[in-house]
């Protein structure tokens, strides 16, 4: 078993949080999330933070959260990353220093089915959330594919992705 961190990246709705929690329980290692760190650090829900400030501020706070997590945990934890963490290349560089990066891949229509009606993610509070997910997915795919491993997370069951990740750590 590796002593590196297990880092999960991918679009919102790809199952990162559920899979991260299951991995942390099965491997009995701590779980951290960039979104939780941001909410804890700012004492605000992400949607309120974005509404009060802007995305530039959010990305700045997100980068600080990544830096802190990587500084505090040099290995042996699961890190569940917000979907936009890949937008800053420095984030991936930092996460890679002591982590194995897994991209949880799922097509936009699957993401949409899972996220329909979700009010917590500001990026999809738009007239056509499915089109927005398609756009974000297309823009980010080359960044997600910089992961060490691509894991198919389109199935409803998390067992497949978990087995694939466990086989690689
Ligand atoms: C975002 C994804 C969210 C959260 C924020 C922005 C994104 O995290 O960080 O709403 O840019 O894709 P999840 O991927 O955990 O939903």
Mean pLDDT rating: 97
Low-confidence stretches: none
CA radius of gyration is 15 Å
- Element order, helices and strands? EHEHHHEHEHHEH
Strand numbers in spatial order across the main sheet = 2-3-1-4-5
Major sheet summary line? 5 strands, parallel
What is the subunit organization of this protein?
A: single chain
Count of DSSP strands: 5
Q: What is the terminal-to-terminal distance?
A: 6 Å
The kinds of small molecule bound in this structure are: shikimate-3-phosphate
Silhouette: globular
- What is the share of helical residues? 40-55%
Percentage of residues in strands: 5-15%
Compute the number of helices. 8
Structural class: alpha/beta
What does this structure look like?
It is a single chain. The chain has 169 residues and is an alpha/beta fold. Helix content is 51%, strand content 13%. The protein has helices at 16-27, 34-42, 46-52, 55-72, 89-97, 108-115, 129-144, 159-166, and strands spanning 5-9, 31-33, 78-80, 99-105, 149-152. Strands 2-3-1-4-5 form a 5-stranded parallel β-sheet, sandwiched between helices. The longest helix has 18 residues, at 55-72. The radius of gyration is 15 Å and the shape is globular. The termini are close together. The mean pLDDT is 97. The site of shikimate-3-phosphate (S3P) has 10 residues, from loops.
Task: From the structure above, extract its key features.
169 residues, globular, alpha/beta, 8 helices, 5 strands
